[in-house]
Amino acid sequence: MEAAPMIEVRELTKRYPGRTAVSGISFTVGRGEVVGFLGPNGAGKSTTMRILSAFMPATSGTARVAGYDVFHEPDEVRRRIGYMPENNPLHLDMRVREYLKFRARLKGMGWGRSRERVDTVLQQCGLTDVQKRIIGQLSKGYRQRVGLADALIHEPDLIILDEPTIGLDPHQIRSVRALIQELGRRHTVLLSTHILSEVEMTCSRVLILNRGEILAVDTPANLERNLGLDGQVVAEIAAPTQELRDAFQDLQDLERFDLSPLDGGFHRVALTPRDGVDLRPVVFDIVGQRRWRLRELTRSRHTLEDIFVHLTRGRRDEP
Amino acid sequence: MRVFMALVRRELAGAFNALTGWVVMAATALLTGISIVDLVTKLSDRPTDSPVTELFYQSAYFWVILLVVSPVITMRTFAAEKSSGTYEALMTTPVGDWQVVLAKYTGSMLFFGLVWLPLFGVLLILRQVTGEVGLLDPGSTAGAFLGVMLIGSVYMALGCFASSMTRSQIIAAMVSFLLGIGLWIVSLRPVSTNVGDGRWARLLDEMSLLRHMDDFARGILDSRHIVFHVTMTLLFLFLTQRVVESRRWK
């Protein structure tokens, strides 16, 4: 069993009356990976997560967590998963410590063990100072941490987080992300989001979902490279127009070249490479040899946002 | 068992933290108080030998309180968790469906028991003031209490069932109120006599909650009544469990 991948999904389909939420997706997640589910609202992220956490069954297809079938052995699966559902539902009338203790009980822990684990997760999630406060009176950021603490409390092999940073302010988002990154060192994590920068920052692999189908699976870096989307280089150089043109026009690997004048004798040089080659060293060398003045040299990385738009182009125009 | 106790405690804590618990308790205390005052006023005109508990449980007061209070007690059980989403968090822990259903029912029953405590307080005060020892006859009081718990058990199970079907507490309360009233109307004498004689009339007569309560309040423990209430409770709990499980058929 230990050799089995953490998550193994085959031809998973979920139909609701009148619509298909997930249609025949397959993927695997290995132990120790941090994988991001990325997609717009209604892409089937939550549905897949609910099936994986054995909350509801699939219409067809199989899903296994740590080698256990989610439909036939749901309790085995539940013991191994720490799941934070969408919108992080909590009993708002309970106190933080009381709630975590209650959840520890539900997950089958005895008195001594739950006490020990509650102390550990309180510390791990930075909740020790608010452990006696009523959850309903905490800020959203703290509530999110309570949800994470609950997901962690039974030391699950796999942590599933459905939109963990939704509705948080930037500061809170940062701290929750840091916490997730921290978790990723010791657990397998599957998280969903529709914020693209989030997966770039936290995940080692991305699954892009749209309309119940997987569009792409890869590392964020590979996605950028394989789609040939990267690397326009922009430099601001102080030099005569003609000299600049001569220097850059006939570079190897150059797809496009643009020049526009700026203030103080500077020019903005925009170079689009072929096949994702990094042109920054080349530009630097040229500028250095001719002793021009350089005040900016950047390579624009195409974000997942571009990738996403690229992949879903045309598909969103259907009804 | 540990898990079950944790769930029951959560149910009770939830009722009191959410203020509804206190409101229900206060409202019932007020209603029983008013009822007793009214009863005692009438008694002073026409004295009788029957204990006050018997008179109270045979009166319409008891039924009004029961029919109104039960849906309010049980409406939270499943509907509130479904609408807040904690239901999903609950059902993704290794807790069995039956454990959840029984814990919610038990929590409701305990609360239902608490709700009737003020009545005994009122009766104790009454006994103190009047010096009438016969006011709280042990036999009929115990019988009445058991009867209340048995009938309450049916209504709590029915309420849990109504709550399990919806995510709206209002709808849960309405459905269980209607089901509860329906069950009660069936037990009114005119209904059973209108059906005519024969098997159906007999069946309805046996189902009469009013008749059951009359007996209980007198301290008569008829095993048929007990079997009836236990069966009805189990039936509704079974239906509730099916509803909880049904998310796996969809």
What is shown here, in short?
The complex is a heterodimer of chains A (319) and B (250). With 319 residues, chain A is of the alpha/beta class.
Strand order of the largest sheet of chain A: 6-7-8-3-9-10
Strand content of chain B: under 5%
Alpha plus pi helix count of chain A: 11
Major sheet characteristics of chain A: 6 strands, mixed
Helix content of chain B: over 70%
Give the tally of β-strands of chain A.
Answer: 14
- The share of residues in helices of chain A is 25-40%
Describe the model.
- The complex is a heterodimer of chains A (319) and B (250).
- With 319 residues, chain A is of the alpha/beta class.
- Chain A is 35% helix and 29% strand.
- Chain A contains eleven helices and 14 strands.
- In chain A, the strands form three sheets. A six-stranded mixed β-sheet of chain A has the order 6-7-8-3-9-10, with helices on both faces.
- In chain A, helix 3 (96-106) crosses helix 4 (111-124) and helix 4 (111-124) packs across helix 5.
- The longest helix of chain A is centred in the middle third of the chain and has 15 residues, at 170-184.
- The relative contact order of chain A is 0.13.
- In chain B, 83% of the residues lie in helices and 0% in strands.
- The radius of gyration of chain B is 19 Å and the shape is globular.
- The mean pLDDT of chain B is 86.
- With 250 residues, chain B is mainly α.
- Chain B has one domain (2-249).
- In chain B, helix 2 (20-45) packs parallel to helix 8 and helix 9 crosses helix 10.
- The A-B interface holds A 50, 53-57, 75, 78-79, 81, 83, 85-87, 89-94, 102-103, 105-108, 110, 150 and B 2-3, 6-7, 9-10, 13-14, 17-18, 84-95, 247-248, 250.
Task: Give a quick set of tags describing it.
heterodimer; A: 319 residues; alpha/beta; six-stranded mixed sheet; 35% helix; 29% strand; B: 250 residues; mainly alpha; 14 helices; globular
